Amino acid sequence: MKVTHAPFGKPALKSGLPRTSLNCREHIRSEVTRVKQSALDEFSAEAGEHVGLLRLALTEAEALAWQTEYPHLVFPVLAAEKARATVRWQKRQRAVWATAPQLSLAE
After folding, report:
1. Is 107 among the domain residues?
2. How many folded domains does the chain comprise?
3. How far apart are CA 82 and CA 3, in angstroms?
4. Domain ranges, residue 72
């Protein structure tokens, strides 16, 4: 990757962003990834066989958070909210299936 010089003598990468900005963005990305894994660990047991939906919900939360100016602040709250909604949906599905009468079709 080509290194250029940014204002005030700070080295910058080809993107034009100062190296400190890139380091900060990578730090935020790693924190978001850490929080995402933590939420997955916390809620996966409750999500049961729908852990794939939990992953999708967390990925959606991450995508939405990156659209904001402060993804590292938005993501943890949004991820928890979406994870809880997924778990509520899973519990509701279990309740419906447990109480729904078995239907049989006559031939």
Report:
1. no
2. 1
3. 40
4. 29-98
